[in-house]
Amino acid sequence: MSSTPQKKQPYPFWLGGTVDSPLDLTKVRLQASGDKRMIESIQKTVRTAGVRGLFDGISGTWLRQMSYSMCRFWAYDESKKMLGAGKDAPAWKLAAAGSMAGGIAGLVGNPGEIVMVRLQGDFAKAPEKRFNYKHCFDALFRMVREEGPSSLARGVGPNVFRAVLMNASQLASYDFFKAELLKTKYFEDNIMCHFTASFAAGTVATTVCSPADVLKSRIMNASGPGSSSTIGVIRASLQNEGAMFMFKGWLPAWSRLQPTTILIFLTLEQLKNGVDWARGRGFTVL
Q1: What does the pLDDT read at residue 45?
Q2: Percent of the chain having pLDDT more than 90?
Q3: Which of 51, 79, 152, 268 could pair with 97 in a Cys bridge, judged by C-beta atoms 3.0 to 4.6 Å apart?
Q4: Residue 138 pLDDT > 50, yes or no?
Q5: Which pLDDT score is estimated for 86?
Q6: Which of 7, 15, 29, 1 shows the shortest CA–CA distance to 249?
Q7: Are 60 and 115 in contact, with CB atoms under 8 Å apart?
Q8: What is the Cα Rg of the chain in Å?
Q9: Distances from the Cα of 18 to the Cαs of 51, 67, 113, 215, 268, in angstroms?
Q10: Could you tell me which residues the Solcar repeats occupy (predicted)?
């Protein structure tokens, strides 16, 4: 007597949020300030603020991760269900699901993104131009009080655009590369396959997202009337630095995103295996 296989339950929405501050901080400072090279920027930070300076704005990083990162994995899984993007879905369906997830997560995580960028970029500025926030909650409170509630939406356009690009390239390309690798005789669904697919996904995502990432950092790190215009930032940057400004900070961005992407997907796959193991033994996982 044959039995109908049970439909696989969805994984908990918080799984992606459980999964490198110095490189992230260096990337923001290269994008938003006058720093020119990654090593020089790191040396400048250590020289002026000590090793602890590499972790400036860590509370902003945590706020951003707990809002944007957790939301995007949940939204990606839900978007794949809506579009019917299963195991062997074509690349365009995965990219569409990633784009939908990025749009949602970009909106939800925008305040945390601003706080992270400002906290990380503050000590790269002249003392009279610093925000001097104590931590992420002080930053949120003072932004609303001093700049109005609309300040929480500063840079939301390029941030959402960047989030769409990031999730369409990182999440979707990981699923695509993983599926393609499993079609060959050289890979099985194990850590080597996950590592290779995530390495490729990290490189694709860094390159695709670089222009929007630079614009996002420059707009969010600015303040005052007229400083939130995307067109104005593009015009000024092109005039002063040329078209390659869009890839400023690519190396530290890649150096940060590559290990992060690998760790995210290796950890996520193991967490999924853990959830499957627990459910197979009758445990309930929220």
Answers
A1: 59
A2: 29
A3: 79
A4: yes
A5: 84
A6: 29
A7: yes
A8: 20
A9: 26, 12, 18, 28, 9
A10: 8-82, 89-180, 189-274
